[in-house]
Amino acid sequence: MERGALDKWFALEYATLQRALVREPRPIGDLLDEATPSATTRSGEPHRFARPEIERLASGLDALGRRRLKLPIFLYVDGESMESAAVRDETAARALQAAGVAPQALSFRMGALWLSLPLAYELNRALPTTTQFVFL
Length: 136
Hints:
About 40% of the residues lie in helices and about 25% in strands.
């Protein structure tokens, strides 16, 4: 495949991923109160959250944490290295650890909870509606 064609294909895939991202993450406390918890994607479509995932994440949070944590939790991946993912929200990192999907041994450092890429994919498989990858 020619380099130009490959670049076009990557650009199309990247644009597709960007459209699926939630435009404005929502507080988990608000989502718990809704019959059908959802948020709007960049394309204007609804992104529905699975209630069991929301409840799992909320179970380890106090009232303040439920106001601070916004869903979905973004897993930031640097497109250059593709070796790790970062959770940049400390409340989200604590919720993931309390829910048992991120190891307690990991600490929030340098502004993020750093996960190996395989661990980030495992986390996304465990919480597919409440986490989203953001490729930078």
